[in-house]
User: Which sequence fits this backbone?
């Protein structure tokens, strides 16, 4: 049985009508025309604690991104292309209409549907300053008004809302962080001085964890301590947590760099910060507008902009890179054992999606180093594989049937690194169409792996490399090609990404995923994902500083799905060399049966 994952169906669309009716009654009682419910928590996080799962509780939708707008006479759930099918399945569409983000943003929907004179309420702790400005424009266009609320209106009707998490805050070893908290704070303060900042409010728990070399467990599958930090230009920082979470080890590790303060005093601390009249940076990505308002109301000057910690955290140091390589080799052993087991057992027709998840987690656990999975595994057989962010539950669990594709996207949290890998395999025989499309996805994957580009290039500039082979066949995929990844932190880390929206220049030391895909709704899905590290790639005779990628993930790519005559000599050479590296890195770490399977699975093709 899987230790870190459950398969309960947490979606409850049948509850939607009653809960939305209660919310509407509350709106009417308070004189509001509507309320906006983002997926994020007070830190604008993608992965949130159960106590902040307001969108899921209200609507039934359990995806990691989306926004609901509930008016007194209609409601909408706005989701991106990853969740189009899921949203339609998880909500009662007679009460709340799923809307594709590509067709209408939340702001567009509000502008078109809020009645003139209507008052739209919002929670200022769940809205960034930039987000509020967009909302203000939409409401003004509709001829309505905006009103902040002191208490989230979903919380008012959520009678059995879970308590906030109180996982212990512990130090992250210096041997793995590669840099002391003191050294990190010195670098952060240098950036603050460049911006003439008197203080920095760290609202992103990932940044807080990284800056002070702390880890926690407040969010599922991510070792996050939820809290805030106020870093003045001089003197100790203030770290604001629930006191029940603070351990003696954390206190000793932080020492005189910071004082631990009760989270209940955080708003008073913001007011005190404002009273100094200084210039305070609030993170544009994760800083709630409530932070801005508190400081400004007390007389402070707020500078909304990027938290300098985000970019520092994204560029990994030698210790973090070494840890990631070690974690990926450990993970490679588990993946090889899993894929060999899958090949033996799946043809019998008895395996299910949940069986696969449990088996893979078991292989990872046997290393003795697994701290958690890095996200709930996406284990999709047949048509379920066509849902990019499918989450298997006891109700949706499908068998792995003959002549169908099976896709598993999973990852692990080891103390020395975070992993994320997707493999698509065939159970039985693939159709020519499956092979064609798998090979096009593979060609796109290889194009990213082989990319060499000048320093200053963004992920948006190379995203099309992964799509070109699909575009040539009139195909595409509706998600980014790659996301950043943390060092024993979040499996999704910014600001770097390979996507149309990836506008942060890639730098040596950044880690990303390389995961193009293709999804045929109702039939199958394909995705091939490795993690990659940006590294210097000098070109003799060139006059530009060039970068490229080192592949960190080592696991066989299913050759039964490869149509080799679609591939160039360079692509075949990459695939054969990659598989040779898989064999080399796993040599001596597998039993004889698994080794024999691996030798066949990684054989050279031409």
Assistant:
């Amino acid at each position: 049985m899987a230790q870190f994952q459950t398969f309960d169906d947490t979606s409850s669309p049948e509850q939607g009508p009653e809960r939305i009716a209660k919310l509407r009654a509350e709106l009417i009682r308070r004189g509001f025309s509507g309320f906006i419910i983002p997926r994020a928590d007070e830190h604008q996080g993608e992965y949130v604690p159960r106590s902040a799962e307001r969108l899921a509780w209200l609507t039934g939708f359990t995806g990691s991104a989306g926004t609901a707008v509930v008016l007194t006479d209609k409601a909408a759930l706005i989701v991106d292309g990853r969740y189009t099918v899921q949203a339609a399945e998880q909500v009662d569409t007679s009460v709340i209409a799923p809307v594709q983000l590509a067709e209408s943003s939340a702001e567009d929907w509000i502008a078109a549907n809020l009645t003139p004179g209507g008052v739209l309420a919002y929670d200022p702790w769940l809205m960034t300053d930039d987000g509020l400005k967009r909302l203000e424009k939409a409401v003004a266009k509709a001829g309505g008004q905006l009103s902040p609320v002191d208490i989230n209106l979903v919380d008012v009707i959520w009678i059995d809302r879970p308590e906030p998490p109180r996982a212990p805050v512990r130090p992250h070893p210096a041997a793995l962080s590669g840099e002391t908290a003191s050294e990190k704070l010195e670098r952060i303060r240098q950036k603050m001085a460049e911006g003439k900042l008197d203080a920095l409010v760290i609202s992103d728990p990932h940044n807080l964890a990284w800056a002070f070399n702390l880890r926690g467990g407040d969010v599922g599958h991510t070792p996050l301590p939820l809290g805030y930090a106020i870093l003045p230009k001089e003197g100790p920082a203030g770290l604001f947590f629930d006191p029940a979470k603070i351990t003696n080890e954390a206190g000793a590790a932080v020492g005189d760099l910071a004082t631990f303060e009760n989270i209940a005093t955080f708003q008073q601390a913001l007011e005190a910060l404002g009273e100094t009249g200084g210039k305070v940076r609030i993170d544009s990505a994760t800083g709630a507008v409530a932070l801005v308002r508190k400081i400004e109301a007390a007389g402070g000057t707020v500078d909304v902009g990027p938290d300098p910690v985000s970019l520092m955290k994204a560029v990994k140091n030698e210790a973090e890179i070494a840890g990631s390589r070690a974690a990926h080799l450990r993970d490679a052993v588990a993946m090889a054992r899993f894929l060999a087991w899958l090949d033996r057992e799946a043809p019998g027709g008895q395996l299910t999606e949940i069986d696969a998840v449990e088996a893979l987690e078991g292989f990872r656990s046997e290393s003795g180093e697994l701290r958690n999975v890095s996200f709930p595994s996406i284990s999709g057989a047949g048509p379920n594989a066509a849902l990019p962010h499918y989450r298997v539950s006891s109700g949706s669990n499908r068998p792995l049937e003959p002549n169908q594709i099976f896709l598993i996207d999973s990852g692990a949290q080891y103390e020395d690194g975070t992993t994320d890998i997707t493999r698509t395999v065939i159970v039985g025989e693939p159709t020519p169409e499956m092979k064609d499309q798998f090979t096009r996805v593979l060609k796109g994957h290889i194009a990213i792996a082989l990319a060499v580009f000048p320093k200053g290039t963004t992920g948006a500039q190379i995203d099309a490399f992964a799509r070109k082979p699909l575009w040539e066949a009139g195909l595409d995929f509706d998600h980014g090609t790659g996301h950043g990844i943390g060092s024993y932190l979040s499996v999704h880390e910014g600001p770097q990404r390979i996507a149309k929206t990836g506008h942060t220049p890639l730098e040596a030391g950044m880690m990303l995923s390389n995961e193009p895909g293709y999804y045929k709704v109702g039939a199958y899905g394909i995705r091939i994902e490795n993690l990659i590290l940006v590294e210097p790639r000098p070109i003799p005779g060139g006059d530009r500083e060039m970068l490229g990628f080192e592949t960190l993930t080592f696991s066989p790519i299913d050759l039964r799905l490869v149509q080799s005559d679609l591939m160039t000599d360079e692509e075949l050479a990459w695939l054969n060399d990659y598989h040779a590296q898989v064999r080399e890195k796993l040599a001596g770490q597998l039993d004889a049966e698994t080794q024999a399977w691996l030798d066949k699975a990684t054989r050279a093709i031409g």
User: Anything to note?
Assistant: The chain has three domains: 13-157, 170-312, 318-601. The longest helix spans residues 318-345. The chain has a mean pLDDT of 96.
